[in-house]
Amino acid sequence: MGIAIVTGGSRGIGAAIARRLAQAGHDIVVNCASSVDKAEKIAEECRALGVNAMAMQWDVSDHAACEQALAEIKEKMGVPYILVNNAGITRDGLMVRMKEEQFDDVIRINLKGAYNMLQLCGAMMMRAKKGRIINISSISGMVGNFGQINYCAAKAGLIGMTKTAAKELGARGITVNAVAPGFIDTDMTAGLAEDLKEGAKKQIALGRFGKPEEIAAAVAFLASDEASFITSQTLVVDGGMI
């Protein structure tokens, strides 16, 4: 088994992915931007599953910080075989009222942060001639969402990035895919008004929000040997919403 990096792995979908990959026998690096205690708790849970795991704090939107973090990971654990680009934020607002920094912050972290990690890890994987990269997109990047032009643009960008990276890295045995979750029970959706939640559930064929573990299962499949001939794809996990 290899070393897996999960960005934004301290909570929600990222934490579920870290645990699921640990269950599959992968050593885990849990990245966080600020929640070091939460990231360390997830690393502890992974170690309890019998793998090596460590929590590391760095800003994925900072290219130099990514370089430094990957050098440390390589020295302490080895070359990462799996990268899950999950780190992301929201800064919602109507397009005509959105402040420039609201747009820029989301693009910088959700899209450029994924690019930084994809570029640097991709180079390491190319030398090793193996790897699995999974980008966490969203159905919002496929259909749009009211008040989220920045988030939707970043998530749509991730899908385009996935397709291009898959073409560039495929000859070296590296697959690059995306997972596009729908409404998932996380801190991000917990803050929604109840009437909005109920309205959303009526649009979902299965009539409920998904669980972080259901996204993690899709990621684990794409990271496995069973998905060795799948690349450049976006796997929608939304309960039949779109």
Describe this structure in words.
The structure is a single chain. This protein has helices spanning 12-23, 36-47, 63-76, 100-128, 140-143, 149-169, 187-190, 194-202, 212-222; strands at 3-6, 27-32, 53-57, 80-85, 131-136, 174-181, 234-237. The model has no long low-confidence stretch (mean pLDDT 96). With 242 residues, it is an alpha/beta fold. It has one domain: 3-Layer(aba) Sandwich (Rossmann fold). Helix 1 (12-23) runs parallel beside helix 2, helix 1 crosses helix 9 (212-222) and helix 3 (63-76) packs parallel to helix 4. Strands 3-2-1-4-5-6-7 form a seven-stranded parallel beta sheet, sandwiched between helices. The radius of gyration is 17 Å and the shape is globular.
Could you give a short description of this structure?
The protein has helices spanning 12-23, 36-47, 63-76, 100-128, 140-143, 149-169, 187-190, 194-202, 212-222; strands at 3-6, 27-32, 53-57, 80-85, 131-136, 174-181, 234-237. By secondary structure, it is of the alpha/beta class. The protein has one domain (3-237): 3-Layer(aba) Sandwich (Rossmann fold).
